[in-house]
Amino acid sequence: MLTNAKAANLDRQNLPQSSNSTSAAALADKAKEDSVSIQALNKAAFGSMTQTMLPMTPEQIKRLRELFNQTQAAAATTPGTPPRPTISSQYVKLEPGATPTVIRLAEGYVTTLAFLDSTGQPWPVDNYDIGNPQAFNIQWDKKSNLLMIQATSLYSVGNLAIQLRGLETPVMVTLISGQKAVDYRVDLRITGNGPNAKALLGRSLPQTADPALLNILEGVAPAGNKPLKISGALAQAWLVGNHIYLRTRLTLISPAWIATMSSPDGMKAYEMPKTPLILGFDAGQSIQLKVEGF
Asked: Which CATH architecture has domain 84-189?
Protein backbone atom coordinates (compact mmCIF):
# COMPACT_ATOMS: atom_id res chain seq x y z
CA MET A 1 0.00 0.00 0.00
CA LEU A 2 2.78 2.41 0.85
CA THR A 3 4.48 1.69 -2.36
CA ASN A 4 1.37 2.48 -4.34
CA ALA A 5 0.87 5.74 -2.43
CA LYS A 6 4.41 6.86 -3.17
CA ALA A 7 3.93 6.10 -6.82
CA ALA A 8 0.73 8.10 -6.91
CA ASN A 9 2.44 10.98 -5.13
CA LEU A 10 5.29 10.92 -7.62
CA ASP A 11 2.82 10.96 -10.48
CA ARG A 12 1.11 14.01 -8.99
CA GLN A 13 4.46 15.82 -8.69
CA ASN A 14 5.38 15.07 -12.28
CA LEU A 15 2.10 16.33 -13.78
CA PRO A 16 2.86 20.13 -13.55
CA GLN A 17 6.32 19.69 -15.00
CA SER A 18 4.93 17.96 -18.09
CA SER A 19 2.32 20.67 -18.51
CA ASN A 20 4.95 23.41 -18.19
CA SER A 21 7.13 21.75 -20.81
CA THR A 22 4.22 21.59 -23.22
CA SER A 23 3.41 25.28 -22.71
CA ALA A 24 7.02 26.33 -23.27
CA ALA A 25 7.22 24.36 -26.49
CA ALA A 26 3.98 25.90 -27.70
CA LEU A 27 5.23 29.40 -26.92
CA ALA A 28 8.48 28.70 -28.74
CA ASP A 29 6.62 27.44 -31.77
CA LYS A 30 4.35 30.48 -31.74
CA ALA A 31 7.32 32.85 -31.44
CA LYS A 32 8.97 31.10 -34.34
CA GLU A 33 5.79 31.41 -36.39
CA ASP A 34 5.50 35.10 -35.48
CA SER A 35 9.11 35.70 -36.51
CA VAL A 36 8.54 33.99 -39.85
CA SER A 37 5.34 35.99 -40.33
CA ILE A 38 7.11 39.31 -39.60
CA GLN A 39 9.92 38.46 -42.01
CA ALA A 40 7.38 37.60 -44.67
CA LEU A 41 5.54 40.87 -44.06
CA ASN A 42 8.78 42.85 -44.22
CA LYS A 43 9.75 41.12 -47.42
CA ALA A 44 6.34 41.76 -48.93
CA ALA A 45 6.41 45.41 -47.83
CA PHE A 46 9.89 45.90 -49.30
CA GLY A 47 8.83 44.32 -52.55
CA SER A 48 5.72 46.48 -52.71
CA MET A 49 7.68 49.67 -52.00
CA THR A 50 10.33 48.76 -54.56
CA GLN A 51 7.64 48.11 -57.14
CA THR A 52 5.98 51.43 -56.30
CA MET A 53 9.14 53.55 -56.33
CA LEU A 54 11.03 51.71 -59.07
CA PRO A 55 8.43 49.97 -61.19
CA MET A 56 10.73 49.58 -64.23
CA THR A 57 13.79 47.45 -64.78
CA PRO A 58 17.13 49.08 -65.71
CA GLU A 59 16.66 47.94 -69.30
CA GLN A 60 13.21 49.55 -69.41
CA ILE A 61 14.61 52.80 -68.00
CA LYS A 62 17.34 52.88 -70.67
CA ARG A 63 14.77 52.26 -73.39
CA LEU A 64 12.50 54.98 -72.02
CA ARG A 65 15.34 57.50 -72.09
CA GLU A 66 16.13 56.56 -75.69
CA LEU A 67 12.49 57.12 -76.66
CA PHE A 68 12.44 60.44 -74.80
CA ASN A 69 15.57 61.65 -76.62
CA GLN A 70 14.12 60.60 -79.95
CA THR A 71 10.90 62.48 -79.17
CA GLN A 72 12.80 65.63 -78.17
CA ALA A 73 14.91 65.49 -81.33
CA ALA A 74 11.81 65.04 -83.49
CA ALA A 75 10.07 67.97 -81.79
CA ALA A 76 13.08 70.25 -82.43
CA THR A 77 13.40 69.29 -86.09
CA THR A 78 12.07 71.74 -88.65
CA PRO A 79 9.46 70.12 -90.92
CA GLY A 80 10.99 69.39 -94.29
CA THR A 81 14.44 70.64 -95.27
CA PRO A 82 16.02 73.35 -93.06
CA PRO A 83 15.96 76.75 -94.80
CA ARG A 84 19.06 77.86 -96.69
CA PRO A 85 20.76 80.84 -94.96
CA THR A 86 21.58 83.91 -97.07
CA ILE A 87 23.24 87.31 -96.57
CA SER A 88 22.49 89.94 -99.21
CA SER A 89 22.23 93.62 -100.10
CA GLN A 90 19.13 95.13 -101.66
CA TYR A 91 18.12 98.52 -102.94
CA VAL A 92 15.08 100.13 -101.35
CA LYS A 93 12.72 101.64 -103.90
CA LEU A 94 10.72 104.53 -102.47
CA GLU A 95 9.01 105.77 -105.63
CA PRO A 96 5.24 105.18 -106.08
CA GLY A 97 4.38 101.87 -107.73
CA ALA A 98 7.58 100.15 -106.58
CA THR A 99 7.35 96.65 -105.12
CA PRO A 100 8.37 96.57 -101.44
CA THR A 101 11.41 94.56 -100.44
CA VAL A 102 10.61 91.01 -99.31
CA ILE A 103 12.36 89.66 -96.21
CA ARG A 104 12.33 85.88 -95.74
CA LEU A 105 12.08 84.71 -92.13
CA ALA A 106 11.96 81.35 -90.38
CA GLU A 107 10.77 80.28 -86.94
CA GLY A 108 13.75 79.87 -84.64
CA TYR A 109 16.02 82.12 -86.74
CA VAL A 110 17.00 85.78 -86.25
CA THR A 111 17.11 88.11 -89.25
CA THR A 112 19.04 91.39 -89.07
CA LEU A 113 18.04 94.38 -91.19
CA ALA A 114 20.78 97.01 -91.62
CA PHE A 115 19.81 100.35 -93.18
CA LEU A 116 22.58 102.12 -95.15
CA ASP A 117 22.83 105.24 -97.28
CA SER A 118 24.50 105.56 -100.68
CA THR A 119 27.91 106.04 -99.07
CA GLY A 120 27.57 102.79 -97.12
CA GLN A 121 27.13 104.55 -93.78
CA PRO A 122 24.48 103.53 -91.24
CA TRP A 123 21.15 105.32 -91.54
CA PRO A 124 19.63 105.30 -88.02
CA VAL A 125 16.07 104.15 -87.41
CA ASP A 126 13.72 106.63 -85.74
CA ASN A 127 10.66 104.41 -85.38
CA TYR A 128 8.87 101.39 -86.82
CA ASP A 129 5.46 99.74 -86.87
CA ILE A 130 4.62 96.08 -87.47
CA GLY A 131 1.49 94.93 -89.26
CA ASN A 132 1.18 91.55 -87.51
CA PRO A 133 2.74 91.83 -84.03
CA GLN A 134 1.53 88.37 -82.96
CA ALA A 135 3.47 86.68 -85.77
CA PHE A 136 6.77 88.59 -85.51
CA ASN A 137 9.07 89.72 -82.72
CA ILE A 138 11.28 92.79 -83.32
CA GLN A 139 14.19 93.99 -81.20
CA TRP A 140 15.71 97.47 -81.56
CA ASP A 141 18.06 99.41 -79.27
CA LYS A 142 16.25 102.70 -80.13
CA LYS A 143 19.37 104.36 -81.53
CA SER A 144 21.07 102.24 -84.21
CA ASN A 145 20.32 101.32 -87.82
CA LEU A 146 19.67 97.64 -86.99
CA LEU A 147 16.42 95.75 -86.50
CA MET A 148 16.41 92.12 -85.26
CA ILE A 149 13.34 90.19 -86.44
CA GLN A 150 12.10 86.70 -85.52
CA ALA A 151 9.07 84.82 -86.79
CA THR A 152 7.01 83.39 -83.93
CA SER A 153 5.11 80.92 -86.11
CA LEU A 154 6.09 78.52 -88.86
CA TYR A 155 4.03 80.19 -91.59
CA SER A 156 3.09 83.87 -91.38
CA VAL A 157 2.86 86.99 -93.53
CA GLY A 158 2.95 90.66 -92.56
CA ASN A 159 4.63 93.94 -93.32
CA LEU A 160 6.86 96.45 -91.57
CA ALA A 161 7.07 100.24 -91.85
CA ILE A 162 10.38 101.84 -90.85
CA GLN A 163 10.90 105.56 -90.37
CA LEU A 164 14.55 106.52 -90.90
CA ARG A 165 16.04 109.63 -89.34
CA GLY A 166 15.53 112.64 -91.60
CA LEU A 167 13.77 110.63 -94.33
CA GLU A 168 10.17 111.67 -94.87
CA THR A 169 9.10 108.56 -96.78
CA PRO A 170 8.83 105.39 -94.66
CA VAL A 171 10.60 102.27 -95.85
CA MET A 172 8.11 99.44 -96.38
CA VAL A 173 9.10 95.77 -96.37
CA THR A 174 7.09 92.56 -96.62
CA LEU A 175 7.74 89.81 -94.06
CA ILE A 176 7.19 86.16 -95.01
CA SER A 177 8.14 83.08 -92.98
CA GLY A 178 8.27 79.42 -93.98
CA GLN A 179 10.30 79.83 -97.19
CA LYS A 180 13.06 77.58 -98.56
CA ALA A 181 15.63 80.26 -97.73
CA VAL A 182 16.01 82.55 -94.71
CA ASP A 183 17.69 85.96 -94.72
CA TYR A 184 20.30 86.02 -91.96
CA ARG A 185 21.24 89.62 -92.75
CA VAL A 186 19.98 92.07 -95.34
CA ASP A 187 21.71 95.39 -96.00
CA LEU A 188 18.95 97.71 -97.19
CA ARG A 189 20.42 100.61 -99.17
CA ILE A 190 18.58 103.88 -99.61
CA THR A 191 19.58 106.22 -102.43
CA GLY A 192 20.86 109.48 -100.98
CA ASN A 193 23.02 110.65 -98.12
CA GLY A 194 21.98 109.85 -94.58
CA PRO A 195 22.88 111.79 -91.42
CA ASN A 196 26.18 109.86 -91.13
CA ALA A 197 27.21 110.14 -94.80
CA LYS A 198 30.94 110.35 -95.52
CA ALA A 199 32.46 112.95 -97.79
CA LEU A 200 33.80 110.98 -100.76
CA LEU A 201 36.65 111.79 -103.13
CA GLY A 202 35.71 111.91 -106.80
CA ARG A 203 32.52 112.81 -108.55
CA SER A 204 29.21 113.16 -106.80
CA LEU A 205 27.10 110.07 -106.32
CA PRO A 206 24.71 109.22 -109.14
CA GLN A 207 21.02 109.86 -108.59
CA THR A 208 20.25 106.16 -108.99
CA ALA A 209 22.54 103.45 -107.65
CA ASP A 210 24.09 100.93 -110.04
CA PRO A 211 23.03 97.30 -109.38
CA ALA A 212 26.37 96.17 -110.84
CA LEU A 213 28.21 97.88 -107.97
CA LEU A 214 26.02 96.11 -105.44
CA ASN A 215 26.82 92.77 -107.06
CA ILE A 216 30.53 93.58 -107.05
CA LEU A 217 30.38 94.33 -103.32
CA GLU A 218 29.06 90.80 -102.87
CA GLY A 219 31.84 89.37 -105.06
CA VAL A 220 29.69 88.81 -108.16
CA ALA A 221 31.39 89.85 -111.40
CA PRO A 222 29.43 92.12 -113.78
CA ALA A 223 27.86 90.63 -116.88
CA GLY A 224 29.94 90.59 -120.07
CA ASN A 225 33.17 91.29 -118.20
CA LYS A 226 36.82 90.58 -118.92
CA PRO A 227 38.84 89.77 -115.77
CA LEU A 228 41.85 92.02 -115.18
CA LYS A 229 45.06 91.41 -113.24
CA ILE A 230 45.74 93.74 -110.29
CA SER A 231 49.10 94.10 -108.51
CA GLY A 232 50.11 96.33 -105.62
CA ALA A 233 47.30 95.47 -103.20
CA LEU A 234 44.51 92.97 -102.70
CA ALA A 235 41.79 93.84 -105.21
CA GLN A 236 39.63 92.46 -108.02
CA ALA A 237 38.92 94.21 -111.31
CA TRP A 238 36.81 93.59 -114.41
CA LEU A 239 36.63 95.41 -117.73
CA VAL A 240 33.18 96.11 -119.20
CA GLY A 241 33.37 98.17 -122.37
CA ASN A 242 35.68 101.08 -121.56
CA HIS A 243 34.93 101.04 -117.84
CA ILE A 244 36.75 99.25 -115.01
CA TYR A 245 34.81 97.82 -112.08
CA LEU A 246 37.07 97.51 -109.03
CA ARG A 247 36.48 95.73 -105.72
CA THR A 248 38.90 96.77 -102.97
CA ARG A 249 39.21 98.14 -99.44
CA LEU A 250 41.28 101.12 -100.63
CA THR A 251 39.93 104.65 -100.84
CA LEU A 252 40.71 105.80 -104.40
CA ILE A 253 42.38 109.12 -105.20
CA SER A 254 43.01 108.78 -108.94
CA PRO A 255 41.50 108.49 -111.46
CA ALA A 256 38.22 110.19 -110.58
CA TRP A 257 35.65 107.42 -110.34
CA ILE A 258 32.23 107.51 -111.98
CA ALA A 259 30.32 105.75 -109.21
CA THR A 260 31.10 104.03 -105.94
CA MET A 261 29.46 102.01 -103.21
CA SER A 262 30.71 100.63 -99.89
CA SER A 263 29.56 98.01 -97.40
CA PRO A 264 29.60 98.11 -93.57
CA ASP A 265 32.63 95.78 -93.46
CA GLY A 266 34.80 98.33 -95.32
CA MET A 267 34.68 96.78 -98.79
CA LYS A 268 34.25 99.25 -101.68
CA ALA A 269 33.16 98.96 -105.31
CA TYR A 270 34.16 101.51 -107.94
CA GLU A 271 33.29 102.23 -111.55
CA MET A 272 35.97 104.24 -113.34
CA PRO A 273 37.35 104.93 -116.83
CA LYS A 274 39.81 102.47 -118.34
CA THR A 275 43.28 103.13 -116.91
CA PRO A 276 46.54 101.19 -116.36
CA LEU A 277 47.30 102.81 -112.97
CA ILE A 278 45.11 103.44 -109.94
CA LEU A 279 46.16 105.44 -106.89
CA GLY A 280 44.53 104.95 -103.50
CA PHE A 281 45.31 105.06 -99.82
CA ASP A 282 44.73 102.89 -96.79
CA ALA A 283 45.46 103.76 -93.15
CA GLY A 284 47.11 106.99 -94.26
CA GLN A 285 49.49 105.30 -96.72
CA SER A 286 49.45 105.90 -100.45
CA ILE A 287 49.20 102.72 -102.57
CA GLN A 288 49.54 102.33 -106.35
CA LEU A 289 47.70 99.58 -108.23
CA LYS A 290 48.86 98.35 -111.63
CA VAL A 291 46.14 97.08 -113.97
CA GLU A 292 46.99 94.53 -116.68
CA GLY A 293 45.11 92.26 -119.07
CA PHE A 294 43.27 94.73 -121.33
From this structure: Sandwich (2.60)
